[in-house]
Design goal:
The protein contains seven helices and five strands, in the order H-H-H-E-E-H-H-H-E-H-E-E.
């Protein structure tokens, strides 16, 4: 009759088989990680709003109106979204940029609809976030000089996103930047 430890030994694979199996699992895992993080198929930008003023306003009103009705009608609007990663297995983040134009007389309604805050998220004092811009420069996006004159609000009431900002200029321009991490 074999000793009890001998019966266990026959059920356990040889050390060389275990090493081979371990190497195979690691190899498959590394291959999957490389495929998941492949940036060749990464989408970098979503075509933004195009067309006439009426078409752009309708598109952006529909996008922003999913969270809550807009405080007042828009006179003009632009939008572009950028995505890093392909949205499959690997990491994927996005950044959205909106530029709205409303009547200056409508700005009090916009301010009332937004949550005035200086600490809306942990990036509130980050100058780089406040100067964020689309990777492909857009003529409608806020200039660095104008960014210093914006009154900042949380984007959450308007977009449903916590990260980013809404900047209101005194002339009726409203800029929105949101992003995911």
């Amino acid at each position: 009759m074999p000793a009890p430890h001998d019966s266990l030994r026959t059920a356990t694979p040889k050390p060389s088989i275990r090493r081979t199996l371990f190497k195979s699992v690691i190899g498959i895992g590394l291959a999957a990680a490389l495929v998941a993080c492949d940036s060749k198929n990464a989408r970098t930008a979503t075509p933004g709003t195009e067309g006439s003023v009426t078409e752009r306003v309708a598109d952006v009103t529909r996008l922003l109106g999913r969270t809550a009705p807009l405080p007042t009608p828009l006179r003009d609007a632009h939008f572009v979204e950028e995505q890093s990663g392909d949205g499959r297995l690997g990491p994927s983040d996005s950044a959205a940029f909106y530029a709205l134009t409303v009547a200056p007389a409508d700005l009090p309604a916009w301010r009332a609809a937004l949550a005035k805050s200086t600490t809306w998220n942990h990036f509130s004092n980050d100058a780089q976030i406040r100067l964020a811009a689309p990777k492909k420069p857009q003529p409608w996006w806020v200039s660095a000089a104008d960014a210093g004159r914006l009154e900042f609000f949380s984007p959450h009431p308007l977009t449903g996103r916590a990260n980013g900002w809404v900047g209101i200029a005194p002339d009726g321009r409203i800029f929105i930047h949101t992003f995911t991490l």
